[in-house]
Amino acid sequence: MNQAPPSTAIEPQKDTDVNASAFVRIPGTENYALRDDIATTPECIRAGKLAWNYRIGSLPEVQALNAGDRVIDVGAFIGDTAAHFQERGARVLAFEPQADAAACFRINFRSFVENGHWCFVDHPAGDGRYVTLSDGKGGNMGARFCMPVTKPGEGDISTFRIDDIILPAKEPIRLIKIDAEGMEPCVLDGARGVIERDSPTVLVEVNLPMLAYQGGWRAEDILSRLPGYQVREYYRYDDRQWDWVCTRR
């Protein structure tokens, strides 16, 4: 069984993989965003904080989190959603495979990662299959994605099954957030044991074009992996993109 080790926190000027110029400080805070991103970064700057998306922060299931609760954040990006979990005192296990976003996340939550309260995995979550990472600077950098490959080659990486994570006993997962750009069914396949055991709330993106592109999937392919769950829609960004809040009946 694999264990997800805490990553070492870094400062921008000490990062060997990502140039410090890739980051921009969010004014009035100690947090950073990606300089070339045109989606999340402007929102953080406009709001003056990392936890810019009030729609997530105001969800009853997020508000119900208590200090010490375990949360998994798949597709953590720079930590703009994890910041809402931090406000509730939750302990976060985050997955983010893109090097620049991963470095930014570790900067933003360096004290939590350093003291072991948070864990960070710089691999994509999934069902164990190999993927290649889409590249690109600029644009909506949170929309970069992992593409499944049939024959792994140089540079391809394996996805990490949530069920393979070793966590302390008697610490159930309270909530899983999944934003995997069409790979949500794979992430859920790798988390069947945790979902059956802990019945966590699942906040999942339902990106219909990306689901079809990645595996010919539909929204129903997400729901079929959550037996016994009820679903309600919420709009995380605007009326063009919708997400589900999934809770056990």
What does it look like?
Helix content is 25%, strand content 20%. By secondary structure, it is of the alpha/beta class. The chain has a single domain (12-248), classed as Rossmann fold (3-Layer(aba) Sandwich). Strands 5-4-3-9-10-12-11 form a seven-stranded mixed β-sheet. Strands 7-6-8 form a three-stranded antiparallel β-sheet, with no helix packed on it. A two-stranded antiparallel sheet has the order 1-2. The radius of gyration is 17 Å and the shape is globular.
Summary keywords:
249 residues, disordered N terminus, seven-stranded mixed sheet, three-stranded antiparallel sheet, alpha/beta, globular, Rossmann fold
Write a brief structural summary.
With 249 residues, the chain is of the alpha/beta class. It has a single domain (12-248), classed as Rossmann fold (3-Layer(aba) Sandwich).
Q: Helices and strands: which structural class? A: alpha/beta
Using the 3D structure, state the CATH architecture. 3-Layer(aba) Sandwich
CATH topology: Rossmann fold
For the termini, the CA-CA separation is 31 Å
The count of DSSP E runs of length 2 or more, i.e. the number of strands, is: 12
Give the fraction of residues assigned to helices: 25-40%
Question: How are the SSEs placed, and which strands pair?
Answer:
Layout: E1 23-25, E2 32-34, H1 40-47, H2 54-57, H3 60-63, E3 70-74, H4 82-87, E4 91-95, H5 99-108, H6 110-114, E5 119-121, E6 130-133, E7 146-148, E8 157-158, E9 173-178, H7 184-189, H8 192-198, E10 201-205, H9 208-215, H10 219-223, E11 229-234, E12 243-248
Parallel strand pairs: 3-4, 3-9, 4-5, 9-10
Antiparallel strand pairs: 1-2, 6-7, 6-8, 10-12, 11-12
